Amino acid sequence: MSSAGTDIIIPVWNNPTETRECLASLVEHSADFRLILLDTGSEPATEQLLHEFADFLDNRALLMRSESAQGFVATVNRGLARAEAPLAVIMRSSTRVTSGWLDPILEAACKTEAGILVPCFEPFGSGSSSTRKCARAAGEVHHGSFSALGITRDLYAAIGGFDESLDGDVWCLKDYSRRAGRAGFTTLRVAGPPLHSRETITYGSRERREKMVRESIAAYTARWGEARFFCAFFASRTDQETLGKAFAAMLTAARRGHHFFVYASPSVYRLILSASLHLLHETILVHKLPRIFPQRACRTAFARIQARHCDVSVLTGLDGLLDLEDEKRVSFAEVEKSISAAEV
What we know:
CATH architecture of the largest domain: Alpha-Beta Complex
Oligomer: single chain
Shape: elongated
CATH topology of the largest domain: Spore Coat Polysaccharide Biosynthesis Protein SpsA, Chain A
Strand content: 15-25%
Helix content: 25-40%
Number of helices: 11
Structural class: alpha/beta
Order of helices and strands: EHEHEHEEHEEEEHHEEHEHEHEHEEH
Strand order of the largest sheet: 3-2-1-4-9-6-10-8
């Protein structure tokens, strides 16, 4: 039985140069870890490379090989089933880590509701300093990335692995975050040194991949429903208590896949920033309204959003909200009620 604090799960299928860079960076920049290397029928050069790393790491590595290539998600699930540490990190062999990458993830994993930990990424070869922190603030996100993804042991014990019938990419990841949320866990972006990732090479016919994505979208929508889009316009008379109630309702809905565009007067915008409400979730986007002609600015903003998302509703029902009377409207109470009904 391993006593490592983190199990790092890496599915591998060929690409020995990228794989060597990935593993070498992990060995150099990680501590108290075990590698779970999943070789899915690689050619001899990659197979030998994995054996060399496994021999070098001794009991800090577990090498598993199958003679034929398996699906990526099925391979990830095999690794998760063998993980024993409080934290498991799934990582593609095309990712490269930098100094201090793991510490913020471990710290975030200690939070009570933490389930999925999402590091920041930069394109490979961007040339940024390895000690620079992610420019994006920590907060909840819609889903993670298989380039690197942390999963707490408590979450895995509660919901198990990924759905192998889905696409092995965005819709599979969205589904896992929704399942985590239903079990009381959050998906958190970690503000630490960015990891470097390459664009993933996809195999198989384009038609087959597109069919899989369509089927995954249909399965996800049948399971969780359609994402909805909302606008909220806060006038200067909005108080702190009203803001707290509004953002609590929006956070609950954002965790269920919905999107919010918030526009606030300058004074309310300052309240939002001072309470860090703009950092709650990546799908709650906050903008400042101008002091002059705010109603006109609201209509311009709404038209711009409506051009991208045709079915957008204006939120009403709380003191201080500006109302666009000739647009589609829905009250906060109705949104909360529909979300509660969907969770039953």
